[in-house]
Design brief:
five-stranded antiparallel beta sheet, Chorismate Mutase Domain, subunit A, alpha+beta, about 450 residues, 22 strands, elongated, six-stranded mixed beta sheet
């Protein structure tokens, strides 16, 4: 497909009118073509303002020169220019490519406000490279969908209007318009995965498959459609599975079968901003946790998350923090009580329920945790009942039971945070009372 300013105009998002376009400008041929063509279209664009941002990763000795040159080119086109300097040093175990990309997008996200749209110069050959990289990493349909034309980003949007154009078409435009661009020497370092594919593998493939970039781009679109269908299925399945915001029904997952269950688990875990387990870990979750005996208490852990099961409830959560259940705290109720490894215990004022305030006057209050053998005479029930039995009846998972704050007045257990109040201190109708609620660390 030939690249022209008219073709670019047609490729810009048609279902939205941003207040401002942020053009990500590296100085390379791709982003320079995008910048030049948009500047040519400027007088025909009714609403959006054009702004340019250059991210200096500081990885090349020439980085400062590149930034200066980009600034001059924007000045020649009378476009406002913003320079962002980032630290792109990789963390332990992080690839240099990933570190630079993550640093770049963090900087760009900080610029994009509500109503803005970020424009990047990814083209059809970039899409082909991305799909192949994802395929070699074992990605599923969502990963193989590669890069979308338009997606939400920060507080606005991210569009890739060059995604249907070959790199050759962009170079033809640049040469025809006498443009001069930068060449980053790191783009030729074939030790980097993408560069290896770009310079060593794809040229040989294109000798036999001339339409490779177009074909792979079409495959990416079909994978995107498949990923959308899988997500819709996961959303529908999740609606029927959720016991609470934090739990899914094990029986319901079994009824779905392994494939659909793994699909909804992947979606649910990702939607809750938890680290998504690998394929092997998902299989382990299905077999060793969901498939465990009914009375078992299985545990599966992966970096940043863990899965547990109690009865019909599957829990996936952040790992439990270290906690010492022998700790005791004195509390005067004047401020939330910080509980090491748990969070903050707070009071909520009520009327006609909770612990009667009058019953706490002059009492020494303390917060402790279950050691075993505790009993409580629960309001509305006869006799004293062990906390163990009460927790079982309320289906409180065993790993939570010794982490639930117990409020004592002197040596009398008067409340179990978030659950029960002793009948001896229960507020009566019209009487002021308090409830105790634990706000967990997150």
């Amino acid at each position: 497909m030939r690249f022209t300013t008219k073709a670019l105009s047609d490729a810009l998002p048609s279902d939205m009118t941003p207040s401002r376009y942020w053009i990500a400008f590296s100085g390379g041929v791709d982003s320079l073509v995008l910048l030049h063509a948009l500047a040519a279209l400027r007088e025909y664009m009714d609403e959006p303002r054009l702004c340019v941002v250059h991210v200096n990763h500081g990885l090349s000795p020439k980085a400062g020169q590149w930034a200066d040159r980009c600034a001059r080119q924007c000045a020649e086109l009378s476009l406002p220019f913003t320079l962002c300097e980032v630290n792109a040093a990789p963390a332990t175990g992080e690839s240099p490519e990933a570190a630079a990309r993550n640093a770049r997008y963090r900087a760009l996200a900080g610029l994009v406000e509500s109503g803005d749209c970020l424009l990047t110069a990814h083209h059809q050959d970039d899409q082909a490279e991305t799909l192949l990289l994802q395929l070699l990493r074992g990605a599923g349909p969502k990963g193989l969908a590669a890069m979308p034309m338009l997606s939400e980003f920060s507080r606005g949007w991210h569009a890739r209007p060059l995604l249907e154009f070959r790199r050759e078409a962009l170079i033809t435009y640049a040469e025809a318009n006498g443009l001069s661009w930068l060449e980053d020497e790191s783009n030729f370092d074939t030790r980097l995965e993408r560069n290896f594919l770009r310079h060593e593998i794809l040229p040989r493939l294109k000798q036999h498959f001339p339409g490779l970039a177009s074909t792979l781009s079409r495959s990416a679109r079909r994978c995107a459609e498949a990923a959308e269908i899988l997500q819709a299925q996961a959303q529908a399945d999740l609606h029927s599975l959720q016991l609470s915001a934090d739990t899914l029904s094990v029986k319901g997952l079994h009824a779905l079968g392994e494939v659909r269950a793994r699909n909804v688990l992947h979606y649910w875990i990702h939607a809750r901003a938890l680290p998504v387990p690998s394929e092997v870990q998902l299989q382990g979750l299905w077999r060793s946790v969901i498939g465990a005996a009914w009375d078992a208490l299985p545990l599966l852990q992966w970096p940043g998350a863990e899965a547990r099961r109690y009865r019909d409830a599957l829990y996936v959560m952040r790992p439990l923090l270290d906690f010492d259940a022998t700790l005791q705290y004195e509390w005067d109720l004047s401020a939330p009580l910080a509980l090491s490894g748990l969070g903050h215990l707070r009071v909520q004022t009520t009327t006609g329920t909770g612990v009667a305030c009058d019953c706490l006057q002059g009492q020494r209050l303390s917060v402790r945790f279950r050691q075993g053998g505790e009993k409580l005479c629960v309001a509305g029930r006869e006799g004293h009942h062990s906390l163990k039995k009460l927790f079982q009846e309320a289906a409180v998972p065993p790993w939570q039971r010794n982490r639930i704050p117990l409020v004592f007045a002197g040596d009398e257990l008067v409340a179990v945070s978030g659950h029960w109040v002793a009948c001896s201190v229960m507020a009566e109708a019209g009487q002021e009372g308090i409830l105790f609620q634990l706000e967990n660390n997150s």
